[in-house]
Amino acid sequence: MDSEIKIVLDACGGDNAPDEIIKGAYEALKKKDNLHIIFAGPEEEIRQKAEAYPDMPTDRVSYCNATEVIEMAEPPVKAIMHKKDSSIVKGMNLVKNGEADGFISAGSTGAVLVGGQLIIGKAKGVKRAPLAPVIPTMNGASLLIDCGANVDARPEHLVSFAKMGSIYMENVLKKKNPTVGLLSIGTEEEKGNALVKQTLPLLKECSGINFIGPVEARDLPFGVADVVVTEAFAGNIALKMYEGTAKMLMSVLKESLTANFRSKIGAAMALPSLKRHMKAFDVSRYGGAPLLGLKGLVVKAHGSSKAVEIKNTIFQCMAFSKEDIIGKIAAEMNKEEQ
Amino acid sequence: MDSEIKIVLDACGGDNAPDEIIKGAYEALKKKDNLHIIFAGPEEEIRQKAEAYPDMPTDRVSYCNATEVIEMAEPPVKAIMHKKDSSIVKGMNLVKNGEADGFISAGSTGAVLVGGQLIIGKAKGVKRAPLAPVIPTMNGASLLIDCGANVDARPEHLVSFAKMGSIYMENVLKKKNPTVGLLSIGTEEEKGNALVKQTLPLLKECSGINFIGPVEARDLPFGVADVVVTEAFAGNIALKMYEGTAKMLMSVLKESLTANFRSKIGAAMALPSLKRHMKAFDVSRYGGAPLLGLKGLVVKAHGSSKAVEIKNTIFQCMAFSKEDIIGKIAAEMNKEEQ
């Protein structure tokens, strides 16, 4: 049997907490014998709900009592500093102290980012810890790095994102020799802002990555590169535009297909094929967005995560831990420092 | 009758030149008695094609012979400096010299931007001339300003974009008291990069615009603001991500609806409703993207423009000219300077 992996789950974070969080954990525990879950949250309530599953493997479940909740709208630095008894602060401390292998939250992105940096801390040689969601594409999936952790990054930060992202895609998503693109406003090298122009020569010279040059946002949904490197402000805008456009078009599609009797019949006939094709874009199977470059593993699950996303995020953490991504990133970053 | 408006059309620009350009001009000429079109391009070829329309109003068509073509991949500054006999350079010179009211090209965006600034020049008091495409939304349309003219803009430039964009939306798209949002990575004021944080207080204090605060990319497709102000790099990424995501989803939708016999029948039944709903997102009716803040009118039509887009871009230019947007922007910018 593989060695035990302990994951802390923020039982208070996200739109569907705690029920879907607990359900996701339950489903993951049933599949993986070497998984141990620690729920961070109000112990009594969580225990009661968890033990309501008759076949919950209670010997592989424990609790970290936390009485405070960090709300989505709270200023993150203040929340992390003051809410010492919150599920995020207490849960992250378990990772920091080596009592758990990873931490997952579907709660406040800001608090997860700040907590990761302040409580767990950056690994030696890492200057910025990027948030790196996996986005679905026509080709499979791409890693968009950074999407919200560090605005106003410098060229050397983007180079380290390219390295960390390549390690993640190669080892967790099992993409051999992943391609790396630099997000820009044209594929020609003379286009782009000052940051892109300064970063380009550094990425070209960088050994150990498969750099393919500047890539355009319009090609991201088609999977133009496995790792798309960008500063967090632009990355966040690309990610949110992707989500927003897909959501808007799906709502128009739904509205048009249910508009009248004829369209409803048509929709019913086309639905199986439509669902089959759309399934490829279901990002839930890739889990959440890891915060890379920390001393411990932190993953931000989507705020709207249901049990299936939580389960897959747990599996993602297990792969991350098993493949020793933290060790591999540390080795790469310290090679860079010499 | 309204006074005559003369528009120069780059007959060499875009994927469908010259045929669709000529057709679009023909259709516009049939609708508007006060329109005069000047085709910039190889005169003999264009004249032959234009006069092949038996009822072409030849008294309202003239030609500006241009023997060179600026290719899409050419470095724009060099192209504008050296290709003096290109349709873009010669066409823009007509606007500069007051021989035409506006210039439209579906060719190289870079060359149009550079040519606009170098040949026609910025209006007094304007420090940056932004490119401002109209994007379709669930609410109608929004102006995304700037989308490619000026990377690395400063806060005062963004304030002038807010003013110019408001004038355009109010007068050309007839949106009363248009709302202005600042593109950011959250609606909270503490989020965003340095540029956003420095621009926010300036926009709040700015009189004459209807500023509603920071807006998120995910809300753009839903029409969160009439004018979305942003620096060109982020704006271009938002625009291209919008285009790319829509294109990708439409191709998946098409593939899924034609996948088998059953889905094809369903699609055929649902299609009328689907087409009706999707029509709202047809951006062609808003014309091209104006380059605002110049001494003369320059509009970049989409590279893939067909006759209908060209026709609508001509109508947009006529509204722009009739409403004296250039005069209104100049008045606003010079008020600012005092």
Automatic annotation (TrEMBL), chains A, B:
<keyword id="KW-0443">Lipid metabolism</keyword>
<dbReference type="Pfam" id="PF02504">
    <property type="entry name" value="FA_synthesis"/>
</dbReference>
<comment type="pathway">
    <text>Lipid metabolism; phospholipid metabolism.</text>
</comment>
<dbReference type="GO" id="GO:0006633">
    <property type="term" value="P:fatty acid biosynthetic process"/>
</dbReference>
<dbReference type="GO" id="GO:0005737">
    <property type="term" value="C:cytoplasm"/>
</dbReference>
<keyword id="KW-1208">Phospholipid metabolism</keyword>
<comment type="function">
    <text>Catalyzes the reversible formation of acyl-phosphate (acyl-PO(4)) from acyl-[acyl-carrier-protein] (acyl-ACP). This enzyme utilizes acyl-ACP as fatty acyl donor, but not acyl-CoA.</text>
</comment>
<keyword id="KW-0963">Cytoplasm</keyword>
<comment type="similarity">
    <text>Belongs to the PlsX family.</text>
</comment>
<keyword id="KW-0444">Lipid biosynthesis</keyword>
<dbReference type="InterPro" id="IPR003664">
    <property type="entry name" value="FA_synthesis"/>
</dbReference>
<keyword id="KW-0594">Phospholipid biosynthesis</keyword>
<keyword id="KW-0012">Acyltransferase</keyword>
<keyword id="KW-0808">Transferase</keyword>
<comment type="subunit">
    <text>Homodimer. Probably interacts with PlsY.</text>
</comment>
<protein>
    <recommendedName>
        <fullName>Phosphate acyltransferase</fullName>
        <ecNumber>2.3.1.274</ecNumber>
    </recommendedName>
</protein>
<dbReference type="GO" id="GO:0043811">
    <property type="term" value="F:phosphate:acyl-[acyl carrier protein] acyltransferase activity"/>
</dbReference>
<dbReference type="InterPro" id="IPR012281">
    <property type="entry name" value="Phospholipid_synth_PlsX-like"/>
</dbReference>
<dbReference type="GO" id="GO:0008654">
    <property type="term" value="P:phospholipid biosynthetic process"/>
</dbReference>
